[in-house]
Amino acid sequence: GENMLWGGRFTGGLDPLMVSYNESIYFDRAFHTQDIRGSIAWARANHKAGILSIAEFKAIESGLNKVEEEWVAGTFKIIPGVDEDIHTANERRLGEIIGKDIGGKLHTGRSRNEQVATDMRLWLRDELRKIETYLVDFLKVMAARAEQEIDILVPGYTHLQRAQPVRWSHWMLSYGMAFAQDLDRLREVIVRVNQSPLGAGALAGNCFGVDREAMAKELGFDGLLWNSMGAVSSRDFVVEAMQWGSMLMTHVSRWAEDLIIYSTGEFAFVRLADAYSTGSSLMPQKKNPDSLELLRGKSGRAFGQMAGLMMTVKGIPSTYNKDLQESVEPMLDHVKTVSDSIQIATGVLSTMSVNPQKMLASLDPFMLATDLADYLVKKGVPFRETHHISGQCVAFSEKTGVSMDKMSYSDFQKIDSRFEEDILKSFNYEHSVEQHSAIGGTAKARVLEQVEILKKMLE
Ligand code: ARG
């Protein structure tokens, strides 16, 4: 302990396993840029508060920029057992570059508790903004495909049983609308993440008169955290981002599951590009949808990180406790998983081919049984009765082996005399999807309307 930055009161050394158990440098070095930028803002605020002379501030600023250059160039040498975390590592190196007399003034009034919260918020904000652009790209591909493939019809399923015909684009946009809500939520989450803890101190705030608003502005924060204890205590911003990512990954996973089913030989609605498939080491004919399976599988991992962090934070007393260091790795892993997943999903979707003939051939006249019932409703028959009559038509077809669309007018007449000759026209899938013309339905104009709504969100 005596070698450490905080070693003044310590005489004994740390258990070597405790050293590695305690250190976070091998993962929190991910925040080197944020840590340096935060320290420059901190030094400037201390200069303005009269703690650092202009010469001292300039020396610290240029020294910190040199430290950052070392990180970027890959020449920063972590000293094992000394550089406990990114904050102590940067400060140690700064002291070596500009001398400890000036370097030792940087940490005036500051705590690593506010530093780590600042670094994590800056890092997460920037990553979430990248994720926002990936999500927008994904949705653009969805909207474009939905528009181009508007005339393709496909079975719609409930219980994975063929239910009613829909437009392929309608299926696509069912996910598009879910991801659009994810985009909405993400934009709200970013604002809450992007609040500055800097100036909160270890827990009690700052006694040297630093201008918190000026520091927040310099670092691009949207606002300040209003309670110093809460500011160092909370990892709500990480939890919320991971809850957001978990919801998104739920949608990714279900979307992937649909496409895994649709890419089987039995369905063959879609075919994945080679770039997103892999072969079998044993069976030469295999082309497996590994990209989609990983999207489904990695969703479990993303949920796990979120649930794990909630368990970590739920019983911690206020304010900073070392347990909070356990929020860093789940955040790094979760964010990478979500970020990569959206980009992979975009790749899969933009390169996947569809087989409209196979989709059409999978439609089954029974899927129009509801239309048959609706037909009689329009002739004034109560729905409960028409449902039963249509059921009798299904039974007739099953018993005789005559497909429902091949039944004759007299077959229908025998079942119910209120069927008129135009009943034969009901057996048309295009006609069926066009009939569902209320907002949100399968009619072409209604699906194109969804495309427009989606595109407007992406501008
Ligand atoms: N590395 C720590 C973290 O990630 C910050 C250090 C705060 N440590 C302390 N003993 N107050 O949470």
Automatic annotation (TrEMBL):
Residue ranges constituting the Argininosuccinate lyase C-terminal domain according to the UniProt record: 366-434
GO CC annotation, single: cytosol
Enzyme Commission number(s) of this protein: 4.3.2.1
Protein name listed in UniProt: argininosuccinate lyase
Record keyword Isomerase present: no
Catalytic activity, as annotated: 2-(N(omega)-L-arginino)succinate = fumarate + L-arginine
All residue ranges annotated as the Fumarate lyase N-terminal domain in the record: 8-304
Keywords, sorted A to Z: Lyase
GO biological process, one term: L-arginine biosynthetic process via ornithine
